[in-house]
Structures are given as structure tokens and as C-alpha cells.
Amino acid sequence: MTGVESIVQMIEAKTAERIDQMTREAEEQREIRLKDARQKAAAVAEDIKSKAEKELKSELTKHEASMKLKAKYLVLGTKDKAVKDVLESAAKVAKKEMEGKKCTDILTRFAVEGGTALGSQNLEHAQVAGAISKNVGQKVTVTIAKDTVRASGGLIIRSSDGSKCVDNTFEARMERLTSRMRDEAARVLFQKKSE
Amino acid sequence: MCAANDAIDIIHEAEEKATKRIQEAGIAVRQMKEQTEAEVKRILQEAESQTKKAAAVSGSDITKQKEEIERRSRKDLEAVINGIEESARNHRTAAIQVVAKILLGE
Q1: Window 20-39 of A, Cβ < 8 Å to B
Q2: Which SS3 state, helix, strand or coil, does residue A78 take?
């Protein structure tokens, strides 16, 4: 082998080696890049999946809560309807009672109740006065006023000086006792079986 | 002198060939890189698109799940309302009496 041939061979060998190295490095880089890409793709997929699942879950939770709220309103509406029916029917029953034989007893009771609440000494009417006196523990006199009350029943009890008054007309009682009547109606209507 | 020139020419030619081969190898490497980048892009896009498709499919299932919630809720509510109405029917008279008594101060 001549000197020139040897130099050419060396150049070729070095070139081949360089090309080999370049190709090897490029292939290694390619493998690394693809591996990274696959890992990133898996992470992206997991992220999208997780977000989608979260959104789905949140949407279903909201929907369920909304359905529960609707159901609660419907339950309350149903109960309210039944309670209103009882209050209306009870008012009719009470009015009928007030127009019947028990009218005097009821009015007396209203007067006693009102008079006792007032605790006034200047009321007159034998039976009522007696009962109030007994309740308040002191002598009370009762007088029936000449003026009439605009109501479907009941009466208004005033102290003689007019400073205190209890409105025991049917309408006023309805208004005043509504909350208590609603509570009682609901308690009786929706009592548990064991009660 | 002539032989020496020939030798230089041969070596020069070999060097030129080597440079050309290295340049070609460089081009091949660059192409490989470009292909790799394209493949990387495709891998990422495919993963994103397939996962989104899958999520959309599972999202379309939400309507069914909502309907199931509604069906269950309606069934439960119906039972509760029936119970309330039955209880109200059974205790209506008693409740009217209690309320009337309150109203009449009994």
C-alpha cells in the first residue's frame, strides 16, 4: 500500500466513523425525544381525562342538588296545602260554633281571656267579671259597651280608661293565632305513626 | 513533481468525497430530526384528540346519568308525597278540631 492509498483509506475510515457517530447520536436523540413525547402524551391524556371526569362529577352533583331542592319545595308545598285546608276548614267550624248554641260560652271565654290579659279592675258583667277576678286575684267589674264591633264574631275587651285593649274578634284571633294554628295543624297532620 | 501532484489530487479528491459524505449524513440527520419532530407532534395531537373524543363520549353519557338521578328522585319524592298526603288525609279531622279549639280559645 502506497502512502497516498494509506492517507485516502484513513480519510475514508475517519469519515465513516464520523458518519456512524452522527447517525448514532441522531438515533439516540430520536429515541429520547419520542420517549419524552409519549410520556407527555400520556400526561396530557390523563389531564384531559381527569378534568372531564371532574366536570362530569360536578355537573351530576349540581343536578342532584337541584333535584333535591325541587323535591324539598314540592314536599313543603304539599304540606302547606294540607295545612291551609285545615286552617280554612277549622275557621268554618269555629264560625259555625260561634253562631250556634255555644256562642255565649265562647264570647265569655274570649272576654275572660282578654280581661285576664288586661288585668284591669274596671270591667263589668257578672259571669265574666267573676271569672276574671278569679284569674287575676282581685275584684274586677265588667261593662258591655254600646258600640258594636265590625267582625264576623268575637269581641274587643278594653280597660275602662281605654288605655289597654285586647282584640278578640274572630278575624283578629285568626291573624294572631295563625302561626300557632299552623304549627299545631302540621304537628297533628304529619305526626309519626308512633306518636 | 508530477507524481506528487497526483498524490495531492487524490488526497484532495478523497477529502472532498469525505466532506460530501459528511454533508449528506448531516442532511440525513436533519431529516431524521424533522421526522422525529413531526412524529412527536403527531403523538401529542393524537393523544389529545383521542382523549377528548373519549371524554366527549363519556360526557354524552351525562344525559343518561341525569335522567337516572331524576328517575330516582321522582320515585323517592312520589313515596314521600304519598306518605304526606295519606297522613294528612288520616289526621285531617283531628287537625281541624285542634285548630278550631285554638281559635275558640278552648
Answers
A1: 22-23, 25-27, 29-30, 33-34, 36-38
A2: helix
State the amino acid at position B15 in one-letter form: E
Is the CB of A22 less than 8 angstroms away from the CB of B40? no
Query: For B105, which of A41, A110, A190 is closest by C-beta distance?
Result: A110
Which of A59-68, A92-101, B14-23 has the weakest average pLDDT? A92-101
Does residue B44 sit at the A interface (CB-CB below 8 Å)?
yes
Residues of B in contact with A26 (CB under 8 A): 28-29, 32-33
Q: How far apart are CA A170 and CA A155, in angstroms?
A: 8
* Whether the Cβ atoms of residue A22 and residue B32 lie closer than 8 Å to each other: no
Q: Is the pTM of this model over 0.95?
A: no
The residue to which cell 278594653 is assigned: A158
Q: What is the ipTM of this complex?
A: 0.71
Whole-Å CA distances, A178 to A170, A174, B37: 12, 6, 79
